[in-house]
Amino acid sequence: MYRYRHLVENAFGRLKQYRAIACRFDKLKAHYEAVVAMACALLWLPM
């Protein structure tokens, strides 16, 4: 159980590196979800 919790917390930590997500600049739900989806895609793709 701790292992999965650790993975989720690390994922949120990496997402918070993007300032727009951490500060929630986009107030509309659709815009915020789009920014989160783009950040997830950038984290998932190998650089």
TrEMBL record:
Protein name, UniProt field: Transposase, IS4
One of the GO BP terms on file: DNA transposition
InterPro entries: Transposase_11
Domain Transposase IS4-like, residue spans: 1-44
Residue intervals passing through the bilayer: none
Domain of life (superkingdom): Bacteria
One Pfam family recorded for the sequence: DDE_Tnp_1
GO molecular function: DNA binding; transposase activity
